[in-house]
Structures are given as structure tokens and as C-alpha cells.
Amino acid sequence: MGKSTHFSGQPLYCQVIKLLDKSRILRLSREYGGEHYVKRFDIWTHLVVMLYAVIMRFDSLREIMASLQAESRKLCHLGIRLMPSRSTLSDANRRRPEIIFESIYRDLYTTYRNILSSDSRKNRDKAWMKRLQIIDSTTITLFSNLLFKGVGRHPKTGKKKGGIKVHTVIHANEGVPSDIKFTSAATNDSFMLRPSVMNKGDIIAMDRAYIDYEKLETLTQREVMYVTKMKKNLK
């Protein structure tokens, strides 16, 4: 992305917010019923607060609200007209459908995907690099497996690996995921391998956890190339 003086003198977070289209975000929320019975804490305020929490790496609602209160005089620059209470934020996190935030991410990805690569990389990328997609997952271990089903028992301790699993698909020349899914840690990775959304000439890189012979056959028929490790028990 070329250098620009458009954001000169603005705080970093304000620069991030400037890339968001408030009217489109509100429209997406209304489509999924996210604004029903909402008076003040709309999706825009909700999104701005949660992005702030992510950037600041807060772990609790108490931390979020304490920091916002300390910076209350600057909230108007973010489009926040009223300081939300902790209970309001908690209720919104529970009530507002997560598909709204998913649709916002997809909309932003579609809007900015052509400028995700820096100018220098875009000119140097080889043709096959632009067709390469990488599929992988990572498990986020939680303190208890009461919330999410465990993956299995540890061979030494016998304890289950409770947590959530983050599945991602990323284009090698872009640097941000084009698709993200959150599941319980016990979910098999292969569900993210979807031949129907892949086109002729695409290249897929994945590990052996994604091996599904029926899907691999479909990829072959669609002329999609794939690179993976074979299972040890392959016969």
C-alpha cells in the first residue's frame, strides 16, 4: 500500500476506524436483526469498543470499561456519544448474533483485498503464489473442558485437551485470512476443505489432518492442485 498523508497527525486507532464504513456496518446489522430493540448501543459502538479491547489486549469487561472511562474525553473522536456500562456491553456480547461480525469482516476483506499486499510484494509475486491458499488450524486451550468438548486424552496425564479451535484459510500473497471459523477443539479439521468454493488452477497447501479421500477426488476432478502429507497408516 502506498504512503499517504491523509491520516497524518491522527492516533493509530482513529486511522483504523476511518477505514470502516459506518452506514454499511449498520445496514449489515439490521439485515441480521442486530438492531432490534436497540436504543443507544448500536453495532457501530459495539464494534468500536471490541476492536479497542482487542488492540489493547484486554481480558475482561472490567478492564475494557476502566480504560474507556479513563479516556472518556476522547470517545467522541471514535463516534461514541455515550459511555456504555459493563452490563450493557455484556448483554450486547450475548445477544447480538456473531454472524453480524462475520459479515462485517467478509465485507471489509472484499473491499480491501486488492491492497492487502504491499506494492513491492505485489510486483514480485509469482503467478502461482497468487493462486496458493493455505489451510490450517490452531487450538486455544481453555482452563476447563466443561465449556467445549475435549479433543482426546493426553497419553501421560489422561486429561482432555479442552478448548476452541480456530480454522483459517489464507491466500499466500495477502497476509490476512480470507475465511475464519471457530469450533470446539474436538472438531475435525477436514470440514474446512470445501472443493465447491475452489476454482480450476487453485493450489491448496494443508497438513494430513485435512485428508478426506472423497474431497481430494473432487479437487482432482475440478483440476485443483493440492499439497499435503500422507497419513502414516496409509495402505
UniProtKB/TrEMBL annotation:
It holds the Pfam family DUF4372. Residues 130-234 form the Transposase IS4-like domain. Residues 9-81 form the DUF4372 domain. SUPFAM superfamilies: Ribonuclease H-like. One of its GO terms (molecular function) is transposase activity. One of its GO terms (biological process) is DNA transposition. This is Transposase, IS4 family.
